[in-house]
C-alpha cells in the first residue's frame, strides 16, 4: 500500500493503532523493518484470514505522475504509475513477479512509452525530499542502465529491511499467460526498447536471451 506524501513516524504510529483496533487478533508481525527517520520508514504486518495469511507493507512518499483514482471509496494508483514502480522494482530487487506484471502492463502501455515516462518522473521528482527507502541502497536506475531490465533470471540475496516478495512463485490464473510465454514476450519488448535507444542487445552467452 502506497502513500504519496511523507507522514513520518507519528503518522505510522496512528496507522498502527488503527490496524490493531480494526483487525484485533487477526493481525500479527507488526514491525518496522526500516525506521531511520521520518522520511525513511515503512511498516510491515500480516493479516490472518480463513484461507490464508496476507502480507501488507505500507510505504510512504511514493510519487506518482497521475492523480490517485477513487473507486467505491478505494484509492487506486493509475496503471501507468504502477508500471513505473514495477520498472524500478524489477531492476533493483530482481524477481519474476514484477517482470510478469510488467509484461501485462506493457501490453497496454508500450515499454518505450513507459521508459519515457520514467525519465519524466525522475526529472520531476529529483530533490532530496523525494527520496524513499528504495533510494537507500543507491541502486542503478534502468534509465542509466537498461540492461537491468533483463536481470529477472538472476539470483540475489534478499534484503528484508526493504519491501520484498516473500515468495517469488507466480500463481497463474486459468487462461492467463504462462511464465515462459511472458518471459519471452518481455525480452522481445526489451529488445525493441534497446533498438529504439540505439543500444546493442546482449548475446545469449549460454543463456536463453
Query: Whole-number radius of gyration?
Result: 18 Å
Tally of distinct domains: 2
**How many distinct beta strands?**
5
Determine the number of helices (DSSP H or I, runs of at least 4 residues): 5
Cα distance spanning the termini: 33 Å
The percentage of residues in β strands lies in 5-15%
How many strands, which pairing sense, and closed or not: the largest β-sheet? 3 strands, antiparallel
Strand order of the largest sheet: 1-2-3
Which whole number gives the mean pLDDT?
89
Order of helices and strands: HEEEEEHHHH
The proportion of residues forming helix, as a percent range, comes to 25-40%
Global structural class: alpha+beta
Low-confidence residue ranges: none
Shape: globular
What is the topological layout?
Elements: H1 8-23, E1 27-35, E2 41-48, E3 53-59, E4 69-71, E5 74-76, H2 79-92, H3 96-108, H4 111-124, H5 179-197
Antiparallel strand pairs: 1-2, 2-3, 4-5
Task: Explain what you see.
This protein is an alpha+beta fold. It has two domains: 1-61; 78-209, no CATH class. The chain has five helices and five strands. The chain has helices spanning 8-23, 79-92, 96-108, 111-124, 179-197, and strands at 27-35, 41-48, 53-59, 69-71, 74-76. The strands form two sheets. The protein has a three-stranded antiparallel beta sheet with strand order 1-2-3, covered by helices on one side. Strands 4-5 form a two-stranded antiparallel ribbon. Strand 4 (69-71) and strand 5 form a beta hairpin. Helix 2 packs antiparallel against helix 3 (96-108), helix 2 (79-92) crosses helix 4 (111-124) and helix 3 (96-108) packs across helix 5. The chain is globular and about 55 Å long. The mean pLDDT is 89.
Amino acid at each position: 500500500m502506497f502513500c504519496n506524501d511523507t507522514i513520518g513516524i507519528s503518522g505510522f504510529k496512528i496507522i498502527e493503532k488503527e490496524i490493531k483496533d480494526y483487525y484485533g487478533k487477526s493481525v500479527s508481525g507488526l514491525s518496522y523493518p526500516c525506521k531511520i527517520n521520518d522520511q525513511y520508514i515503512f511498516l510491515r504486518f500480516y493479516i490472518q484470514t480463513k484461507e490464508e495469511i496476507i502480507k501488507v507493507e505500507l510505504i510512504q512518499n511514493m510519487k506518482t505522475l497521475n492523480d490517485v483514482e477513487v473507486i467505491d471509496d478505494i484509492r487506486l494508483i493509475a496503471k501507468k504509475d504502477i508500471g513505473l514502480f514495477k520498472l524500478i522494482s524489477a531492476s533493483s530487487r530482481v524477481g519474476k513477479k514484477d517482470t510478469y506484471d510488467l509484461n501485462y502492463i506493457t501490453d497496454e502501455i508500450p515499454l518505450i512509452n513507459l521508459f519515457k515516462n520514467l525519465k519524466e518522473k525522475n526529472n520531476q521528482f529529483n530533490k532530496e525530499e523525494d527520496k524513499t527507502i528504495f533510494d537507500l541502497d543507491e541502486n542503478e536506475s534502468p534509465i542509466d542502465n537498461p540492461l537491468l531490465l533483463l536481470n529477472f533470471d538472476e539470483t540475489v540475496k534478499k534484503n528484508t529491511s526493504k519491501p520484498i516478495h516473500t515468495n517469488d512463485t507466480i500463481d497463474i490464473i486459468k487462461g492467463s499467460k504462462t511464465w515462459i510465454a511472458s518471459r519471452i514476450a518481455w525480452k522481445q519488448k526489451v529488445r525493441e526498447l534497446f533498438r529504439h535507444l540505439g543500444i546493442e542487445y546482449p548475446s545469449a552467452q549460454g543463456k536463453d536471451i
